[in-house]
Amino acid sequence: MIRRFQYKDATWIDIQTPTEEETRAIMEEFAVNPNVISELIGPSMKSRVELHKNYIYMILHFPVFKHSHADEMRQEVDFIVGKNFVITVRYDTIDAIEKFTKIIEVNSILDRGIEENCTTILFFGIIAQIYQSLANELDYIEGSISSIEQAIFEGREKDMVFALSQVGRNLLNFKKSTDFHSEVLTSLDSYGRTIFDEHFSYHTRKIQDEFTKIKNLLNNNIASVRELRETNDSILSTKQNEIMKTLTVMAFVTFPLTLMAAIFSMDTKYTPIVGMENDFWIVMGIMAFAGVCMFSFFKYKKWF
C-alpha cells in the first residue's frame, strides 16, 4: 500500500508491506540507488544510517507492544530523506505513523512560522511521534510495575512471578530494539549537515534529547523490575523456609508419638500397660504428655 502526502513543497511517501514493483516505481521517481531498493523489499537485521549523494537512508527498529498488530518482537521503519521528499517503508501497521498522517492532513499544526526545510519538519515529526509513543508505552509499563509492587506487599508474591517475567521480557525487547538508536542519531546529525541547513542539526539534537529521556526511563524501569524480582524472591524464600520449619517441627513432635504407638502395637508376650484397665486412655495420655513436652521445648528454643 502506498500513500502520498504533501506538506508545502515537501512530499511524504508512506509505503506499507511493499512489493518489488511498487518500491521500484517510487525509487525510480526519486532516483534512489538500486541497492537501497533491494534493502526495502524485506526487513533488515539492525538499525543503521547511510549517506548517499542526494539523500540519507536510515533504518530504525522499535519494540512491539500490546497495541501493535505484529507477531514479531520488533517493528522496522526505513527512511529515505531527500531535499524535498521523505519516504517511509514499513512492514506492519504502526500506530504512531497512522496518527502522524492525521496531523499531516491538518498541516497548519506543523507550521510554526519558521522558515526552514519542510522535509526536515516532516522527517523529524514522524520520528518524534514514534518516540512519543515509546515514552507512553514506558509510562504504561511503569504503571504495571507499581501495580506489581503493590501486589507483592499484599501477599500475592507467588502470582507476581509470571507478571515480573513478562514485564522484564518487554523491557529487554525494548532495550534490544533501541540499542543502536544513539549511534544512528549521532551519525544522522553528521550526515544531515552535508545535505540540509542548520535547522537539521537543531532537530537532531532535540530528537537525541528525547531518546535520552526514553533511555533513562527504560533503565529506571529495568532497575525497578530487578529490585522487585529480588524482593519477591526473598519473600517467597522466607515463606517457604517458614513452611519447611513448621513441617519440620511437626515431624519432630509426631515422631516420638508414632514411635510410642508402634511400640504399644507390637505383638509380644508382654507389653507394659496393655491389658490393664483403661489402658487405651493411659497410652493416649502418655503420648499427649510427650507431645506437649516436645512442643514446649521447641517453643522455648524459639524454633517456631
Number of beta-strand segments: 6
How does the helix and strand content classify structurally? alpha+beta
Proportion of beta-strand residues: 5-15%
| Proportion of helical residues | 55-70%
Provide a quick synopsis of the model:
The protein is α+β, with helices and mostly antiparallel strands and 304 residues long. The chain contains eight helices and six strands, in the order ββααββββαααααα.
Describe the structure.
With 304 residues, this protein is of the alpha+beta class. It is built from eight helices and six strands. Strands 1-2-6-5-4-3 form a six-stranded mixed beta sheet, with helices on both faces. The radius of gyration is 34 Å and the shape is rod-shaped.
Descriptive terms for the model:
304 residues; alpha+beta; six-stranded mixed β-sheet; 8 helices; 6 strands
Q: What's the arrangement of secondary structure elements?
A:
Blueprint: E1 2-7, E2 10-16, H1 20-29, H2 34-40, E3 48-51, E4 55-63, E5 74-82, E6 85-90, H3 95-105, H4 118-152, H5 160-178, H6 181-195, H7 198-264, H8 279-300
